[in-house]
Amino acid sequence: MSKKITLDDISKQLGLSTAAVSKALRGLDGISEETRKLVIDTAKRLKYKSFAELPAETKNVTGKVMFLVDHRVITEPHTMASYFYMDKAFKEYGMQVTLQVLPSNDDELLVEPLLRDPDIIAHFMFGRTSAHIAELLGKANKPLIIIDHFFPYSNIDSVMVDDYYGAFLAVKHFVNNGHVRIGFIGDNKLSPGFHARYRGFCDALDYWGLDLHPEFMYDIRFVNAYGDIRFNILQEKLDFKHLPTAFFCANDPIAFVLNNALIAEGIQIPDEVSIIGFDNLDSCQWQSPPLTSLNYPREQIAVQTLNLLLWRMENPGEPCNKILIQPDLVKRQSVSIAKK
User: Hey, what CATH class is 163-296 in?
Assistant: First the structure.
């Protein structure tokens, strides 16, 4: 049996995104006539099933998709910046992204209306969300993709930043600047991403032959009994009299609190302690000093989420995908050469 040709096959042949290929085949705006002809010719050569022959659910991709966010993180800069790029990518393709705040509990009666909306063609869950709600959304028989999170035991597509790799980049930058006593601040139970950053940090120390100092490892429960995140409790946990020369923080808000707490104690950043965060929020550049951070590739994640949705609509029965996108390190003034 010959292999079924998909949009992804055509996109790889031409070096275009699957969204661009689909636009060209469907006659949508935003594609040059030269590119459109090239796509159509390639589709014919590869014997791609014409758009007219595709199932109705695959053709109807100009509807709405729902971007579901937990109510506890809806106002966070990371959440809203990610939503901005999702909205941009899908709008360029011709789809509308609807932002929906998830309820504070797993009440099925509150989730049920989300399942009945006939105009919604797919659901996206962003960040730290409920496995039970994901299970409920799965009953809608529509594509479901989790962004910036995953459930290890579920058969659900996900798109994430490569947190483990990002921690290696952070430690490498410290090592290149002569640091050997490096600490970590995070919350291993907050999310799979935070835990992956911790594992990457520990493995990176081992890779470069550095000792892991338990006294510099701060695994703090930042979530209170109501599910709210309180990064400010960090300053109560720090031993200001016994510090490493560098800290890798599991996200930028932790790094911001750390920076302010150290400065308040008269500790110079980065001369005495260097700091790296994760997410590269816009406010990193306005810190004093500007914060070095791992860049969360929001635009690429949005595009890959769109591509994955298009693929899933053509391949509803295929196993789930977990797509990891590598971050890059944005170097600013919060890291300096370690003093001997």
Answer: alpha beta
Residue 129 and residue 144 in contact, taking contact as beta carbons nearer than 8 Å: no
- Of 301, 305, 275, 297, the closest CA to residue 288 belongs to 275
Encode pLDDT of 254-284 as tens digits.
999 999 999 999 999 999 999 999 999 999 9
CATH fold, domain 59-161+297-326, is Rossmann fold (3.40.50)
Residue 211 confidence (pLDDT): 95
Supply the pTM of this predicted model: 0.80
- Where do we find the tokens 């579901």? 68
The DSSP annotation for 36-69 comes to HHHHHHHHHHTTPPPGGGS-HHHH--SSEEEEEE
CATH T-level assignment (fold) for domain 7-54: 434 Repressor (Amino-terminal Domain) (1.10.260)
pLDDT on residue 251: 95
- In the chain, domain spans: 7-54, 59-161+297-326, 163-296
Between β-strands 144-147 and 157-161, what pairing exists: parallel, antiparallel or unpaired?
Answer: parallel
